[in-house]
Design goal:
two-stranded antiparallel sheet, 2 domains, 2 strands
């Protein structure tokens, strides 16, 4: 049987704030403000439609930004080459990916006059642009908040891919302890613990209060401990330690699953968006 190994959680790697680069954030706010002013002045002296020169200008800017934002994926897949060629730091690319994506969506709105466009292709492009931007911003929040939750409320660090093996090891260790226990502990195990040890559990309570969801379940052990002799209390303590570890693993499983699952709400729509942009450019050029 494999040895159960869990590492203490290292909290010092958790980001301190949602905005990692205040300078980039303020530049983004300034650019956004100037674009709104420019668009407002544009409306005072010109009519903006997707097909006239101003609408095409805004659409072109949106396209250029979206392509540039998409290059982050290429940058990540060519880390060694990027390092050799000195093609910018990853942090700078991530900042551009985030803020550039939001500004690209703003250009899309300016391109369509802040109204839903006519036509199936244009409508799909408009909706997909919004989806990709919102899911990207949501991903930023998730990647900031969830690691902080894991670090502040849990005592162990778990690799997501190893969770099923760790759960099996904990269950095996508990099952070795149970045969030598008295009946009250055996009954308690069957009623409160055996089902928990079967597999990783997704528990929504961990999104609300990661510590209370665990500590509340620990209280049942205190009630049982009072009526047990010292020798049996030690066995109960071992089971309680395994149980708490399993609950913390469930917390990792719950939060890390969301952290990983977010990518599937952002990456496939992003690829679809790129295809829609190509089709849109083709129809504009054709007609």
């Amino acid at each position: 049987m494999m040895k159960l190994t869990l590492r203490k959680m290292t909290v010092d790697r958790i980001p301190a704030s949602i905005v990692r680069s205040p300078k980039s954030f303020f530049i983004f706010l300034a650019v956004t403000f100037l674009l709104f002013i420019f668009y407002f002045l544009n409306l005072l002296f010109n009519v903006v439609t997707p097909g006239n020169r101003w609408g095409l200008f805004y659409g072109t800017m949106a396209t250029v930004l979206m392509v540039g934002v998409a290059l982050l994926g290429v940058r990540r897949r060519a880390m060694k080459m990027a390092a050799k060629k000195n093609i910018g730091k990853v942090q700078h690319w991530v900042q551009f990916h985030l803020y550039g994506g939001v500004i690209a969506l703003l250009f899309v709105f300016m391109h369509t006059g802040f109204s839903f466009p006519s036509g199936l292709l244009d409508g799909c492009l408009w909706v997909t642009s919004i989806w990709v931007t919102i899911s990207g911003l949501l991903g930023v929040l998730i990647q900031k908040i969830i690691p902080k939750m894991l670090g502040s409320g849990l005592s162990i660090e778990v690799v997501y891919d190893r969770i099923p093996d760790l759960v099996n090891q904990i269950r095996e260790r508990a099952e070795k302890i149970i045969p030598d226990c008295v009946d009250p502990i055996k009954d308690f195990y069957q009623q409160n613990m055996s089902a928990v040890f079967l597999s990783p559990k997704f528990r929504s309570i961990y999104f609300i209060d990661i510590t209370d969801g665990i500590q509340r379940r620990m209280r049942a052990f205190d009630y049982l401990r009072r009526v047990l002799p010292v020798a049996e209390q030690e066995k109960l303590d071992q089971l309680q330690s395994l149980y708490k570890t399993k609950l913390e693993i469930d917390a990792h499983y719950t939060l890390q699953k969301v952290l990983r699952g977010w990518l599937y709400t952002h990456l496939p729509p992003s690829l679809i968006l790129m295809v829609l942009i190509v089709l849109h450019l083709y129809t504009v050029w054709l007609y």
